[in-house]
């Protein structure tokens, strides 16, 4: 499965389950420069980007927040809603105007609890995204700090 397949809900979930989730989606437009959430805040929703880009950042004491990844078309913004304690691990800010589908996390978690097939599919989808982002972060950190880079070309 390539990365575009693994992060896109449109490809990751079976059509019937995807349609059920999309029934509770709300289309939103968010201006450039809008903070969607702050590290440590309550993770009560998530987004799938239709157009535009969103930067994920981490707070660095005494400095500007450091951007660790930029997300775009069809990508999931926010996974902290899925796992307790449901607080954001990062911050997020729109870097361009964004159009997205917004989902209420409490409603999605309730749907997943009521339907084990949906719960499993959503957990697999979000879990795969978290795993891919952790691998990507590891590679970036090794490129920055390891004496010989990430070694991915070996």
UniProtKB/TrEMBL annotation:
Gene3D superfamilies: Jelly Rolls (2.60.120.10). It holds the Pfam family cNMP_binding. PROSITE patterns: CNMP_BINDING_3. Residues 9-78 form the Cyclic nucleotide-binding domain. This is Cyclic nucleotide-binding domain-containing protein.
